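Q: Given only this backbone (211 positions), what sequence would you predict?
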């Protein structure tokens, strides 16, 4: 019944959350801010500057916009160093099979990641050509939970939002899919992704015919 499937990247197709964790932790601690896995969870799906603002909210002083840009850049360079060794071995179980199932069913495939490193990550994973359209996060004004990125993907794929299935692991991402008027498949736990139409544990359980 769907005409397109729009995937999130981090936490759905690959797990870059750990690399974000390492890079943000070093940055946070350099500013005297405690950073742990729980904090990292709350940053899932939130864009770079939004994440930095959440971290610096616990700092003991105010930062100028210039200082913030410089800190975001330090984090990003560390993150880029960490992802530079990624390979197809970093694909999450079931991810390629899910993409191939969607392709075989004749549906269009989009990627809606707010990561400005998404093109690099897709390249390292070796799956760039599996997508008909990849949103360039640099051209998105409002991050998730705003529906902008999912609406852009649908528009560029030439499919009405109501005919799209969105796949997300983050609360903010599921909210963005629902706000876009799409069917939301959550990857994670139903107690967490309460807004999703269906929740599965990983793409290993992906069953297009069931939604
Ligand atoms: P970058 P997604 C998001 O990707 C991550 O979940 C989030 O933790 C990260 O801060 C954001 O990308 C921005 O990433 O610093 O590389 O631009 O889940 O939308 O694929
Ligand atoms: Mg994600």
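A: Predicted residues:
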């Amino acid at each position: 019944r769907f005409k397109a499937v729009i995937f999130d990247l981090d936490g759905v197709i690959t797990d870059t959350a750990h690399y974000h964790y390492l890079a943000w932790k070093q940055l946070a601690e350099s500013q005297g801010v405690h950073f742990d896995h729980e904090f990292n969870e709350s940053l899932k799906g939130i864009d770079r500057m939004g994440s930095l603002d959440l971290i610096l909210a616990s700092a003991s002083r105010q930062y100028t916009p210039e200082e913030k840009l410089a800190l975001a850049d330090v984090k990003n360079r560390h993150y880029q160093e960490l992802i530079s060794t990624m390979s197809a071995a970093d694909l999450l179980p079931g991810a390629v099979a899910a993409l191939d199932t969607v392709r075989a069913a004749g549906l269009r495939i989009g990627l809606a990641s707010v990561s400005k490193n998404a093109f690099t990550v897709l390249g390292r994973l070796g799956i760039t050509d599996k997508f008909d359209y990849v949103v360039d996060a640099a051209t998105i004004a409002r991050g998730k939970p705003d529906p902008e990125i999912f609406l852009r993907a649908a528009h560029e794929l030439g499919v009405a939002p109501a005919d799209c299935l969105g796949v997300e692991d983050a609360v903010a991402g599921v909210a963005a899919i629902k706000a876009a008027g799409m069917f939301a498949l959550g990857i994670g736990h139903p107690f967490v992704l309460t807004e999703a139409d269906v929740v599965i544990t990983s793409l290993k359980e992906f069953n297009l015919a069931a939604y």
